Structure formats: C-alpha cells, structure tokens
Amino acid sequence: MKRHAVLALLATVALLAGSLAGCTTPEPEVVRETRIVEKQVTVEKEVVVTPTPAPKGGSLTYGLLFSPSGMDPHIHSSWDLGAAVSSVYDPLVYTGEDGEIKPGLAESWEVSDDQTSYTFKLREGVIFHDGTPFNAEAVKFNFDRIADPETKSQFAVVLLGPYESSEVIDEVTVKVNLSEPFAFFLERLGLPYMAMASPAAIEEWGEDYQLHQVGTGPFIFQEYVPNDHLTLVRNPDYDWPLPYADHTGPAYLEEIHFTFLPDASTRVPALEAGDVHVARELLPEQAARLAQHPDFTLLSTAMPGQTLQFFMNSEREPTSDLQVRQAILYATDPTISANTIFRGYFPPAYGPLSSNTPSYNPAVEDMYNYNPTRARELLDEAGWIDTDGDGMRDKDGEPLRLEMIVQGWGHLQELGEIAQGQLLQVGIGVEMQMMSYPAALEAAGTGAYHLTPYGGGGWDGDVLKAFFHSTAFFNWSKVEDSELDRVLSEASQEMDPEKRTELYHQAQVMIMEKALILPMLSDGQLVGVSSQVKGLEYGNMGLFPRFYDTYIVE
Asked: Which residue, 376, 373, 350, 375, is CA-closest to 363?
C-alpha cells in the first residue's frame, strides 16, 4: 500500500473515532475532596440546675377559738374578730417592729403644734372591694361612725380617744381634730377595730354590715356563717401593700377559711388530721408534743399590754370590802398556774400589765407575795370567821362565797380551779359558772359576779384606761376613783415618753393597792402551724396574723 493510501486510512479511522466519542459515556474521573465530618462524643459532668419555682398560692384553713359574738370591727371587740377581719382592711398607719409609725393608706401626715390635729395625705388610686374609691370622705365617714353614740362601739371608740371631728381638705387630704392631745392616736389607727370600711357598703347593709364587710385589704370578705365558718378570697386588684410586705401585687393565697375550735382538746388533733393549717391557744401539754413533730412548727407569741386576770367587783359584797380583795391576792400564788397549767411557756402576772409592756412597773411584783397567813389575818379583821368549823368563813350567818365566771378560752376553767383550791385553804368558797363570751360580757357589765376574767393583750399602758377609768365600757371592777381617773387621763395626753411612763407606773400601783384584779398570767399564744404554711407572721402585738405574704406548699 502506498504511503498516501495509508495516511488516508488513518485519517478516516481518526475521524470515525472522533464521531463515536461524542455519543459514549467517558470514564469517571477520581477527584479528591476535603470534608469535615463531626463525631458525636458523650461527656458526663455535674450541672447545677435551678428548677422553676412552683407558683405561690393555695387555700389556708385557720382555727379560731370561737365564733365572735359580733363581727363589725367598729362595734365589737373580741380578739378573734380582729384576727379574722384584719386582712379585709388596710390601716391608715401602723406601728412597725421598730416601734416607729409606718404609712398605710396614708402616705404621710402632719401633727399640729398643740398635738390636737392630724392632717393625712392619702394614697391615690386605692379602691374598696365594691369598686368605690377610698378618699378623704371615706376617712371622715369611718371616724364619725365610730364616734357616733348610735353605733354603740365597745372598743373602737376607746381607741379613737378624744376624737372631735374630721375635715375634708381635698380628695386625698383629711384633717382629724381631737379635743385634747392623745399620745397614742397614731398607734391606735393600726388596729383592725379602726378599719377603713366602705361607706357605700355600710349605708347599703346597715345593721347587717357585719355579714357583708367591704374594705381595701388584700382579701375580700366572701361569706360568714356564725358558729360555722368565715371565708375570705384574694383581692385580684390589690396593689398597695404595707411596708412590711415582701412582695407587691395581690396576695399569694387564693382563699382563707376560718373555722372555730372552742374545745381546746380538739385543736392539736385538728392540726394533725390536716383539718386546719393553723390553730392557736393550744394546750401546753399538747404543744410540747407538737414541737417535736417535723410536720409542724410551734410559735410562742408573747403579748404586751393587759395580763390574763380576774376583775374583782368592788361594788358587790363581799368583794366590795378592800380587805377581802387583798386577802384574795395574798391567798393565791400565780406561779403555780404558770408552772403547772402553762408549763413555763409564759411568766406569772403580778399586776394589770405584762412584763414585756414598755410602761410595765416591776414594783407590783412585791406588793402581794403569796402569804396565806396574812390573808387569814385580813379576813379576821374584816369580820369573816369560821363560826361552825366547816372550813368556810361566815359573817352574820352568810358564808364567804364568791361567784366566778369562767369561759372556754385561756384555760380559764383550770385557772379557776387552782384559785378555788387556794382560796378554800383560807376559808373562802368559790362557785364557778361556765359562760359563753356574749353571756359573760353581759354579766360582767351588770356586775352580777364577783370575779370576771379578761385578757390578755393590748399594746401599752394606755390599755389601763379602757378597763380602770370610771367611764370605761370594760370597767368590770366597778371602780370610781377620781385620782385614778386623773392619772390615766393625764398619761394618755402626755407626749413626753418618760413622764407618761411615770404616770402609768403610778396607775399600776394604785390599781393593785385597791386590789381591783386577781392577776394570773402574762399572756401569750401557743400557735401550731403546719409545715406546709410559709410566710405567716404576727404583728408586734402577737395577736393578729399577717396573711399577705403567706402561701401553701403541697
């Protein structure tokens, strides 16, 4: 084959190969790529995790001693009333734990130079539970209602002191006028009996207001069934807490149920069974057991002011005789009751005021040391002799026998029994009669008995005026002494603390010189609280629970 022919053949083959290359799949190329591949690794380590706190709330059941005889704070007077409704209302001002006056519904106040006028600047935007505004007109309405004789106030009118009138300056400013200086006016405004109630509600319900109470407080009065229960519910619009509060806005608890436990022996069992979260006035022998239980806390709240005492009727024979009353004091030993019935939780009393009261006079402690021999001498001098040898003294054919009221609170029956035994040793007989609080209130007012109990608690020396001034509603010793009246009146007007204390020291000695009372105990409360309850506190009086910061942990 010639060279040209060979070249032509090769060209044809090359052309054919080129045309075939356009219709076949080429060989794959190997390409190197760099990729980052994540590898899952499990690492174990300890991590502190803060759990989301459970919301604070719950419903609390609180055991009161008995159903109050009346529930209107402006009219009635029991301590259980104050405990039950204190969260329905806000005070104008109140006394803090440091003894200083703190703002409440009143943001600020000014006192006139002569100490007889108080001008309050009120907090704006506060609304009563019924939707009506709290303002200066409401303050005037409440003070005027308490002072009105038609209201027949038992206690609040005493707390209000020498109130004369109120003047509305503007919507949020009110001037309160007194007829004379009253050293404790601001302190008294913090008590629940000085409640700032809705004028509209009082006008609507009249005498039935006690069943339909309306305030500005963190809880709303929902239902009261006498002798059964009282229910309060949270005020969802509340946003003006007092300075002691730990939070703002509505209270934590949704509801508070008050039930009544008049039988002291049922209170600790009710706690242990979960029927109540809180019970007060526990029996000391039960309280000691409860204190060792991990599911409960035992609170011991000492109360300043008036001691637990029996008033001795100075108008009715034979306690109308000073020597008989003094003999009663010498014949009884308060330390026995304090150490046996009360197991040393609270100290004995020797006068009308507890030892933790700021104006307490320790001089009363040595005025009537236990001395049965001296008691017998006084009774002999008074003409009371045991003529027939039966162990009971008599005079003109009449036995020396006293009638004593006891009630279901404060271990009064046990206290009465101890006093009964001690007095019998010197020839004095005692007949005890158990009464309800309303019945005892009426009997004491009419002077139908020789020995009538009351106490304890209060705030300072001025509580003496409510019980020992001749015009006082609670003057159950029936004393009428112009000099004692003068000292008590001057003390309440004295603005100098040292001079005021000296006057109260005088009054305590005068009361015991006249032997107007049989002191028993510097009172307090033993309160059992479930460990589920958090944030519960009592004010500086040790009487009224503060529920605003309280909640339940399930």
From this structure: 350
